[in-house]
Design a protein that fits this description.
Length: about 1000
């Protein structure tokens, strides 16, 4: 509550310690400023310092050095780095690093104080009538009315705290109460309490709060305070809030007025909230543009970078400067249009293919480099580690001889979780804090431990190093994977039958001869789609168009691919196969399934030299080759004798790099091809194929595609994999049962039918057949916590709050953490349905939530895997618990992009809910999730099958869902209706209004990318 502070009113200054009862501390999260009252807060946000920090892409800034206007913070950052600005600053004897100013007036523009931006005069009329302007205007009026309503008036004071804080679940079920004291400070006054009611009608659900007044009546007189008892009863975890409106009437003046108090409660675990609460208020990290590193002393590369006998050099393939400028100086939407016009060809065909994808690779590289800035360390220590050799002298006496470790070690927060991802062979730049601009030392990464990396610098680094010296550390993008993709795109291999296959190509490529096989894996003989896929691959003539094995979740696509490889080798003694996958784990899976029939002279697992030996499965160690303790390649004569080479898509450049001739491989397989970019898959295809090489792709375009960090590159198509692009053409029709171009696997061996039903109908045309082991998929039928004992899906509704802390823009939700922990404890404690940590997986789309859940599970079930959707793709668990995180009470601002974020992504949804074998639990806020048509349909499915827990849905789940969406619009309209209704009621009861301004935060692309995975691309 906010009342007029006598110290502030009398003297214009006050400390909270003098009269805390008059203040509520308000924090400006953007600036990190603590304000003693809302009055101070309003003054702060109206000031230029705050407005400058809030400046986004729609704010005009002024450069006092150049006397020019700059449109937006991003363009400002590039302006101050430019040569003309630096030259003018030098001429004026000023530092180029000047702060921008926000001009009060601009020629030909009108400043809108509501929207905090300058509007061209010609557009003012339309702007003032626009929905966004009127919404902000109405929101400002609502906030002013709410503040006015919360003030004590006419000598009536309502004291006491209506915030219940955190209430334990058992206490909330039984009901808890708080008391407010109502009194008048004017001796001659007499007031009647006309009514008390709760008035936040956003949802149709009844308020969990009640209020009671004493029996002696609602008359309020001097010296006789009234105690009002507020009670809350909630049977479930989560948060509730409302507004208590107390309507008074002055019986002498016959004037009515209202005093409002917000009422809030959190039902959960006090211990969890204390453990997991934000460590510091969220203050967006202020991006400071990197000054270019013009003077860099080269470091020492690790020995692993020289163990493979490459016969040629990778192209530099540096991004064009005009492309970088376009990405630096323009908003995402403008950059997309600019790049389409200038850098991309008008049509994509065999002649323009390389140019098109090279441009997209540069766009993505620019974003990756910018995102790495997020991990810069400003005050790091570099440690050396002396080692001690023990020697025995002739007299038997032991002495210690110090031997210097050549590495300097730096702690890297988040390294264990690949945030940032650092591999042996990467580059890290360091500079003394406070050193002259531009002088950097490059450190080659030689050692990567769990929390630190070991670097080697030029010998001159040692002369200026000390263990107390602080350093600025910059992580630099390892360009080798990008260079390998450019190298592949630059090759002459670009046949139409590979890049843009047609139906006529299929007819030429398919043999008319029937193929009969005896499967190595006996189960394939009983699986008609798998058998068709293998025989179709066997029937291909040399030089056929690519063949696709479409493998929805749990249908055994890798088993099918491995069977096809074995059959090819068995039928054709001259067959040579290159098998690739986007990740080492996926490539290892292929190799592990081949070792049963291939020996170490036939199968070779090719690893990048940056990989450590302890990262390789013991079973595959005999199938590798090491040189000087690093993975390498055997002599060419032996290398060419292997019948199968298995590696990642990027490492598929190694055979080309060491001189293996084009056409050496009769077949190139790309498993999980939907998870790699098209240029990534093309590394092996473009460098090793000739006109006779057959290409086989396997994957699922309905699941997660490649991780693309650039919104521009995503919009322009880099997120569309080669597999997905082909399957989007009429040539690759999964409904064609002939198996000429594609075979769709349909037998699902993973999930219970009720878990499979919704994604099956939504994504796979209801073609999937549940064929899982009954002992596994029925393991939780009858589980006591199931709302419906034969329906092993729970949606647990939690009305929580998504939080952020410190400078991390990633969200977490303590209410959901507590609920997830509760379910895991119940699973572990249930004796009849025995569940181990290894049986449970927790999926959440936000990195901060992963960290909070892991913290909460320590000493409870710390072996439970908690990770992102990407980390679980290709995996399965008996029990999957999903925490969706996003929750918001700001109904006016509801929209899919900002309220749901990552959650509103069909592929993420599909992957997340198809990991569970026997039990699926989803914890989330239905009022937010139901904004998205896909989630709304899923919630309806669960509710109609009686799998719902927690507060009921606020909509009719029997009404068909409009796939066009628009549910966020309805919620916004309801929120606006509530705001306007409240404002009008308060206006009738007050004599004055206070105007206010409202800011709207923008979302920096790098902030959105904080939750995207960094792939270990070798």
């Amino acid at each position: 509550m906010v009342r007029i502070c006598p110290q502030l009113e009398a003297h214009g200054v006050c400390t909270i310690a003098q009269c805390p009862e008059y203040h509520e501390v308000k924090t400006c999260e953007l600036c990190g400023v603590f304000c003693a009252s809302f009055a101070w807060y309003e003054a702060h946000i109206a000031g230029k310092k705050h407005r400058r920090k809030a400046a986004g892409s729609n704010t005009t800034l002024h450069c006092s050095v150049c006397n020019v206007y700059i449109y937006g913070q991003r363009v400002w950052e590039q302006h101050v780095l430019g040569g003309p600005h630096a030259k003018k600053a030098l001429q004026q004897g000023l530092s180029p690093a000047v702060e921008p100013t926000i001009p009060d007036t601009l020629p030909g523009r009108v400043f809108c104080s509501v929207c905090d931006k300058h509007i061209p005069e010609g557009l003012w009329s339309s702007h003032s009538q626009s929905f966004d302007h009127r919404k902000k205007e109405g929101y400002g009026a609502y906030k002013a009315a709410l503040r006015e309503a919360e003030k004590d008036k006419h000598g009536v004071i309502v004291s006491g705290d209506a915030d219940f804080g955190v209430v334990e679940i058992l206490d909330a079920k039984n009901g808890v109460s708080r008391s407010l004291t109502i009194q008048t400070t004017v001796p001659s006054s007499r007031f009647t309490i006309v009514s008390t009611n709760f008035s936040s009608p956003i949802t149709s659900a009844p308020s969990p709060f009640t209020v009671e007044l004493p029996n002696h009546g609602p008359m309020l007189v001097y010296g006789r305070p009234i105690a009002a008892t507020i009670s809350v009863r909630l049977p479930h975890a989560g948060r509730a809030e409302d507004r208590l409106e107390i309507l008074f009437e002055d019986t002498i003046l016959k004037q009515r007025f209202v005093i409002v108090r917000p009422v809030t409660v959190i039902v959960g675990s006090r211990a969890d909230y204390e453990l997991l609460k934000p460590k510091a208020p969220y203050i967006p990290r202020q991006r400071t543009a990197r000054q270019p590193e013009n003077d860099v002393v080269p470091g020492i590369k690790p020995p692993s970078s020289m163990v493979i006998p490459y016969v040629g050099r990778l192209p530099k393939a540096l991004p064009p400067t005009d492309l970088v400028a376009a990405l630096s100086e323009q908003s995402t939407s403008k950059a997309i249009g600019h790049i389409q016009r200038i850098f991309l060809p008008k049509a994509l065909d065999t002649n323009t293919y390389a140019r098109h994808f090279k441009a997209l690779l540069w766009v993505e590289e620019f974003r990756m480099e910018r995102d790495l800035e997020h991990y810069d360390i400003l005050d790091a220590l570099l440690r050396d580690k002396p080692t001690f050799d023990i020697e025995r002298r002739a007299g038997g006496k032991l002495i210690a001889i110090t031997r210097r470790d050549p590495y300097y070690y730096v702690d890297v927060p988040g390294l264990a979780e690949k945030r940032p991802s650092v591999l042996v062979g990467d580059r890290i730049l360091v500079q003394k804090c406070g050193a002259a601009e531009g002088r950097w030392y490059e450190g080659g990464v030689h050692v990567v431990h769990k929390t630190e990396v070991g670097l080697r610098f030029h010998a001159s680094f040692m002369s200026g190093w000390s263990s107390q010296q602080r350093y600025t550390v910059r992580f630099k993008l390892n360009r080798i994977p990008v260079q390998r993709q450019h190298q592949a795109l630059d090759t002459a291999f670009a046949p139409r039958r590979v890049l843009f296959p047609s139906r006529s190509d299929m007819l030429l490529g398919q043999s008319l001869l029937a193929v009969s096989i005896k499967p190595f894996n006996g189960l394939i003989a009983t699986n008609a789609p798998q058998l068709l896929a293998v025989t179709s691959i066997m029937r291909q003539q040399p030089g056929s168009p690519p063949f696709v094995v479409f493998g929805p979740p749990g249908t055994g696509k890798t088993i099918t691919i491995v069977e096809a490889i074995k059959q090819l080798l068995h039928r054709n003694p001259t067959a040579r196969i290159l098998a690739t996958a986007p990740s080492n784990s996926a490539a290892d899976l292929i190799a592990e399934r081949l070792v049963s029939t291939l020996n170490a002279d036939e199968l070779f697992r090719l690893y990048a030299p940056s990989r450590y030996k302890n990262q390789v499965p013991d079973q595959l160690q005999p199938y590798t080759f090491m040189k000087d303790q690093h993975f390498s390649t055997p002599p060419m004569s032996r290398f060419k004798r292997f019948r199968v080479i298995v590696c990642t898509c990027v490492s598929a450049s190694i055979p080309y790099g060491i001189g293996v001739p084009r056409g050496h491989f009769s077949h190139i397989f790309a498993d999980e091809a939907g998870q790699a970019t098209e240029p990534e898959v093309m590394i092996g295809i473009n460098t090793m194929s000739d006109n006779s090489t057959n290409i086989i792709l396997s994957g699922d375009p309905k699941q997660l595609g490649p991780i693309i960090r650039s919104g521009v590159a995503r919009e322009l198509g880099l997120e569309t994999s080669y597999l997905e692009r082909l399957m989007g053409t009429s040539t690759y029709d999964a409904k064609d049962g002939s198996g000429a171009t594609v075979v769709k696997l349909v037998k699902n061996f993973r999930s219970h039918p009720t878990i499979l039903k919704f994604p099956n109908e939504r994504f796979y045309a209801a073609d999937l057949e549940p064929c899982g082991d009954k002992k596994v998929i029925d393991a939780f039928i009858g589980y006591p916590k199931l709302p419906s004992k034969k329906f092993p899906i729970i949606f647990h509704a939690v009305s929580g709050k998504d939080d952020r802390e410190a400078s991390s823009p990633s969200f977490f939700n303590i209410d959901e953490v507590t609920q997830v922990k509760t379910y895991i404890k119940e699973l572990r404690d249930e004796r009849r349905f025995r569940t181990t940590d290894a049986d449970i997986g927790v999926i959440t789309p936000y990195h901060a939530q992963c960290l909070k859940i892991r913290t909460a599970l320590k000493a409870v079930a710390d072996e439970v895997k908690v990770g992102s959707v990407e980390e679980f793709q290709g995996q399965e668990r008996k029990v999957i618990i999903i925490s969706t995180v996003r929750s918001s009470r700001n109904f006016v601002e509801y929209d899919l992009k900002h309220t749901l974020g990552f959650v509103a992504n069909p592929r993420r949804f599909n992957v997340a809910i198809t990991r569970a074998q026997a039990l699926l639990i989803v914890v989330g806020d239905p009022s937010v999730l139901s904004l998205d048509p896909l989630w709304r349909s899923f919630l309806n499915y669960v509710h109609q099958n009686r799998g719902w827990a927690g507060p009921p849905p606020t909509w009719d789940t029997s009404i068909p869902v409009d796939e066009n969406g628009g549910f966020d619009k309805g919620t916004r309209e309801t929120g606006l209706l509530d705001m306007n209704s409240f404002s009008r009621r308060i206006e009738k009861l007050t004599l004055s209004r206070v105007q206010d301004e409202s800011d709207e935060d923008g979302v920096e692309e790098s902030d959105a990318n904080v939750d995207r995975e960094w792939r270990d691309v070798e």
